[in-house]
Amino acid sequence: MGEKEREERSFTEKLKFALNKGDVTTFKRLVKGGVDVNAKFWGKFPPIAGCMEEILILVLVVKQGNLELAGLTNSSTKYKSTLLHEAVAIGNTEIVTLLLQNKAEVNAANDDGRTPLHIASRAGREVIVDALLQSGARVNACTVDGQTSLHVAVWQGRENVVRFLVAAAADVNVQDGDGWTALYWAAKLNYLEITKTLVEAGAKLNFTVKNRGRSALLEAVDKGHVVLAEYLVRQGADVQINAQGETVGSLLMKNIHIPPDIIMRTADFFIDAGYVIRNDQCMSIVRKQKRLIENSDFLQWINAKQSEVLSLANLCRICIRKYLIDCSDGRRISPLIRNLPVPKLLLDFLEFGQQSFSESDSVT
């Protein structure tokens, strides 16, 4: 390697360092110091010496290397990631804006099917998400495994990005290749506020994933997220769903992290919503749980539940709510309840009134 090539390589490393630090000022200073942008390390790029905006774009190319370019702004790497993908991943808003102004393809997808919006949503880059949406990013574009930007934003717990995407008409009911919806992710990871945002945006409550057939409610119960599970039931989640023998009751009893008193309170709530405990396999599960069979209060409670008859009021509530659930196309029933021409006292009863748990009851 000659002296000139060594100097160019050193300069490239400095540019890469400035980029990784997000230090555009330093980058501009380095460029001002002089560089042959047509040298071999720049590959097949067109002459752009003296144009600062294109040079700022060029630094992203330096980061990746080994490119086959048809044009600068929308060129892709060997992984089919464009400069815009790279800029979004780094999180440099100034360069992202520059690329968008230079007509970067906002909906370009890499080999995994990820668009710049997927990357920004996963990273929680709200300003960049907004810029991409304003530039025409397709909010419901899917990766090769069927995930939308909403899926990945929920997965990473990006509450504000989720709100951005929902406001931009993201489809909250897209199921990925495994049947997972954004709501299923939120229930699994105990993101209560995100769950509320999705449900209020029309998320269907009873979609089930492939293989195991679990709903968001069953997943929440299995993970011990009883506050979130209660919220889903209030909104109309099916408490009678059975996924290969798994029910809300069986998953509740099996969860060793949920204290017996919370199991009893949660099960009582599910029963009031229509769960039939006496027809379930709960007793066989309880017998295998030493911590439960040694708890006298719990044993007294579950034995009583085997012969308990619901009140007429509770039976009426279950029937009315079931009718509304059937009318809601699987979405939340709260708006339907509030539109019923009945006294407020009855509306409160249909929504379970003051029956609720505190955040401290949830097991994470």
TrEMBL record:
<feature type="repeat" description="ANK">
    <location>
        <begin position="112"/>
        <end position="144"/>
    </location>
</feature>
<dbReference type="GO" id="GO:0031436">
    <property type="term" value="C:BRCA1-BARD1 complex"/>
</dbReference>
<dbReference type="GO" id="GO:0004842">
    <property type="term" value="F:ubiquitin-protein transferase activity"/>
</dbReference>
<dbReference type="GO" id="GO:0085020">
    <property type="term" value="P:protein K6-linked ubiquitination"/>
</dbReference>
<dbReference type="Pfam" id="PF12796">
    <property type="entry name" value="Ank_2"/>
</dbReference>
<dbReference type="InterPro" id="IPR036770">
    <property type="entry name" value="Ankyrin_rpt-contain_sf"/>
</dbReference>
<dbReference type="InterPro" id="IPR002110">
    <property type="entry name" value="Ankyrin_rpt"/>
</dbReference>
<feature type="repeat" description="ANK">
    <location>
        <begin position="212"/>
        <end position="244"/>
    </location>
</feature>
<feature type="repeat" description="ANK">
    <location>
        <begin position="145"/>
        <end position="177"/>
    </location>
</feature>
<dbReference type="InterPro" id="IPR036036">
    <property type="entry name" value="SOCS_box-like_dom_sf"/>
</dbReference>
<feature type="repeat" description="ANK">
    <location>
        <begin position="178"/>
        <end position="210"/>
    </location>
</feature>
<keyword id="KW-0677">Repeat</keyword>
<dbReference type="InterPro" id="IPR001496">
    <property type="entry name" value="SOCS_box"/>
</dbReference>
<dbReference type="GO" id="GO:0070531">
    <property type="term" value="C:BRCA1-A complex"/>
</dbReference>
<protein>
    <recommendedName>
        <fullName>SOCS box domain-containing protein</fullName>
    </recommendedName>
</protein>
<dbReference type="GO" id="GO:0035556">
    <property type="term" value="P:intracellular signal transduction"/>
</dbReference>
<dbReference type="Pfam" id="PF00023">
    <property type="entry name" value="Ank"/>
</dbReference>
<dbReference type="Pfam" id="PF07525">
    <property type="entry name" value="SOCS_box"/>
</dbReference>
<feature type="repeat" description="ANK">
    <location>
        <begin position="79"/>
        <end position="111"/>
    </location>
</feature>
<keyword id="KW-0040">ANK repeat</keyword>
<feature type="domain" description="SOCS box">
    <location>
        <begin position="302"/>
        <end position="351"/>
    </location>
</feature>
